[in-house]
Amino acid sequence: MTDKSQINQTILQENSNDSIVYNRQNAVTLRINNRDLEKRVKLELAKNSVAQDIIKNIKNNANFEIINEILTFQDLIYVSARCRQEIINDHHKSMIHEHQSSNKIIERISRIYYFSKMRKQIEDIIRKCNMCIHTKHNRHKLYELLKSFSTSNHA
Q1: What are the backbone dihedrals phi and psi of residue 77, each rounded to the nearest 5 degrees, phi first?
Q2: Which mean pLDDT values do the consecutive 10-residue runs of the chain (155 residues) have?
Q3: Please, which residues bridge with residue 135 across strands?
Q4: Cα–Cα–Cα angle for 113, 115, 118, rounded to 5 degrees
Q5: Total number of domains in the chain
Q6: Residue 58 belongs to some domain of the structure
Q7: Which residue pairs, CB below 8 angstroms and at least 24 apart, start in 121-129?
Q8: The domain spanning residue 130 has which CATH number?
Q9: Cα dihedral sign for 79, 82, 88, 91?
Q10: 70 pairs with which residues across the strands?
Q11: For a surface tag, which of 49, 64, 75, 104 has the fewest beta carbons within 10 Å of its beta carbon?
């Protein structure tokens, strides 16, 4: 048996009846690997009127929950509008997954975060990315060369 302070730091922990339970508080906190980003998510959550309405009526919203001062939707971290671009850019421009396609970024972000119109926002940011514009080849089929029509002199 390990020390209680160690158990509280893990995602899985032993319950009083010797069963293993999922420690949701630590799981949500560990998903945000950037402490500055975590602080901004919490700060923007306090400023966001939609999030505040959800928090006020959280008992009526079975899908929402507050864990470690972070609003979650079905165990995904709810992100207000001001933090979304930063999260998308962090995932798109990271050294590990540098400038991947929108589908891969959507898949990675949607494992951790929730925000409305996620696909559209990610695709818009990637479409405007200078690095992607200049390095990725265009998959559009080239147009055929225009051919001029001969005109007849018949009147």
Answers
A1: -75, 125
A2: 45 68 57 75 88 88 86 88 87 76 88 90 88 73 68 67
A3: none
A4: 95
A5: 2
A6: yes
A7: 121/84, 121/85, 121/88, 122/88, 122/92, 125/85, 125/88, 125/89, 125/92, 126/92, 126/101, 126/102, 129/92, 129/99
A8: 1.10.340.70
A9: negative
A10: 67
A11: 49
Q: Locate tokens 């980003």: which residue?
A: 37
CA dist., res. 113 & res. 72, Å (int): 8
Tokens of 130: 């200078």
Residues, the chain: 155
Enter the tokens of residue 54.
């959800």
Q: Which two tokens stand for residue 64?
A: 């929402």
Structural domain range at position 19: 1-31
What is the 3-state secondary structure of 5-70?
HHHCCCCEEECCCCCEEECHHHHHHHHCCCHHHHHHHHHHHHHCHHHHHHHHCHHHCCCEEEECCE
Cα 112 off chain centre by = 6
